[in-house]
Predict the structure.
Amino acid sequence: MKVAVCYEPKKPLVIEERPVPEIGEEEVLIKVHYCGVCHSDLHIVDGDWADWVSYPTIPGHEVVGIAVKVGSKVKNVKEGDPVGVPWLYSSCEVCDYCVEGEEPLCPNHEITGITKQGGYAEYMVAHGRFVAKIPEKLDLAYAAPLFCAGLTVYSALRHMEVKPDDLVAVQGVGGLGHLAIQYAKAMGAKVVAISHSSNKKETALSLGADYFIDTSTSDPAEELKKLGGADIIISTVFDSKAIQPLISGLAPKGRLCVVGAASEPLLVSPFELLAKRLVITGSAIGGRKLLRETLEFSADLGIKPLVEIFPFEQVNEVLDRLRKGNINLRAVLKMV
Ligand code: NAP
Ligand code: ZN
């Protein structure tokens, strides 16, 4: 089978042949049909997380395909089922976090594409209890981005307990952000898209945003204040300096939830926090229950990512386009 290997950061991935892996009794062999290209893959390839990612690694954690071999102890999936694998490859299943359905907080979880082979490959082995069946209504190519981009922002919005008529601002109209706009709208919120790309206005509005704030020409906090202040901001960008100016745009009791993997500290005024009783928090991916919900919610409400589909062999060109912000709006690799 063909796989794309990241041998060391900042170098192109190498496409090479490997034997199709064997499975254990609790595992599933997936013939990968599509794999979404998340910006987290680019952080891995560019060495942004080199202090905790070990190389070589085969990235890819928005994996969808068909279960072609199923271990004897796997109960939730059978051969021929369309299935997908998220970032959370597996977790211990017995710690308090796992038992309450918060598997991403498990200290012993494995990560698809980092600690386990990911989906930039023709086949991958998955943990039987952590693959998700894909609802019939979802087309596989469009289902792939739901396994990370969709799950992450759906979970963040659920953790924020969005109420109808909340003013929800989504910063970054990219892979995660464009799905966040759609979910927030479907949850009944008034949605503000905040972008540093003026050319994304039309797309953001067509996805359901009620307002568009262009940070290249206006002060986002002032613009949010004119709208009464944001009850919730979901920030998907990975630059702390771009996040910081939004905090003053929160309404009293407003909450900022960061999902973009910015590593620089975020400067916050304690006075502003106390005066408006603001909450600043973050959210990472989602557990199995939230993954099922994301897939069902998307299927039931017809929520789809905007995807550009590329042949697997173009993986390095795709990563380069993502690096330059030149993807509309989620790249998906086609493996078959
Ligand atoms: P993406 O498709 O590249 O989208 C990111 C968006 O951020 C861009 O489209 C752009 O939107 C905005 N942006 C880029 N550079 C910027 C800058 N210098 N200043 C301000 N805005 C900028 O990436 P993605 O796949 O959505 O991932 C976004 C981030 O989330 C990454 O850091 C990724 O690692 C992280 N992530 C986190 C989780 C989690 O569990 N929390 C899961 C998946 C991904 P505009 O053009 O509209 O400004
Ligand atoms: Zn991801």
Observations:
- The chain has eleven helices and 17 strands.
- The CA atoms of residues 30 and 67 lie 5 Å apart.
